[in-house]
């Protein structure tokens, strides 16, 4: 049975997941159209939950830039997540391992919803809050990547 706090997090994450699906669908299409395999597009989305970082990274990959340029681009685009993670008001009971998992899923929208809660938030709530948005992000990338391999060029261009 799912913990009550996790259920609340899942419920609060539904609108975020829906929004992420549409943005990541576009990323999946663009990645495949740029020559990246659907598998690698999904892997990028699974490992890097940031639309700005992914779109910037895609540009760096396609332009065949160096790893140093990629690292610098990602640092500049995503440094805000470190600041947001540090300022999250977590329960004292949240251990280091949980903090690392939460930092992985701490996006602008997750941070905004978690920060709007009165007092502190716990790991169970945040796990629930992060779950559907991650699935929406990765699922949208997969759907966009697959769609771009199946749809005619005119439809892809319109999307």
Descriptive report:
- This protein has 159 residues and is an all-alpha fold.
- It is 79% helix and 0% strand.
- It has 8 helices and no strands.
- The protein has helices at residues 4-33, 38-47, 51-62, 67-87, 96-105, 108-115, 123-150, 153-158.
- The chain is globular, with a radius of gyration of 17 Å.
- The N and C termini lie far apart (40 Å).
- The mean pLDDT is 92.
What is the overall shape? globular
Strand content: under 5%
Q: Encode the helix/strand succession as letters.
A: HHHHHHHH
User: Poorly predicted ranges (pLDDT <50, ≥5 residues)?
Assistant: none
Q: Biggest β-sheet, characterized? A: none
Q: How many strand segments?
A: 0
Structural class: mainly alpha
Task: List the total number of helices.
Answer: 8
Query: What is the C-alpha radius of gyration, as a whole number of Å?
Result: 17 Å
Calculate the mean pLDDT score and round it. 92
């Amino acid at each position: 049975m799912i913990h009550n706090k996790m259920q609340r997090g899942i419920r609060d994450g539904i609108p975020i997941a829906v929004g992420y699906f549409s943005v990541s669908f576009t990323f999946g299409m663009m990645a495949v159209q740029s020559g990246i395999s659907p598998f690698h597009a999904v892997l990028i989305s699974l490992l890097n939950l940031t639309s700005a970082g992914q779109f910037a990274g895609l540009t760096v990959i396609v332009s065949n830039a160096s790893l140093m340029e990629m690292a610098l681009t990602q640092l500049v685009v995503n440094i805000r997540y470190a600041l947001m993670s540090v300022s999250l008001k977590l329960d004292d009971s949240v251990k280091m391992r949980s903090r690392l998992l939460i930092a992985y899923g701490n996006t602008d929208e997750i941070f905004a919803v978690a920060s709007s809660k009165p007092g502190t938030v716990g790991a169970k709530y945040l796990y629930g809050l992060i779950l559907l948005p991650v699935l929406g992000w990765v699922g949208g990338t997969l759907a966009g990547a697959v769609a771009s391999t199946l749809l005619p060029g005119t439809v892809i261009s319109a999307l």
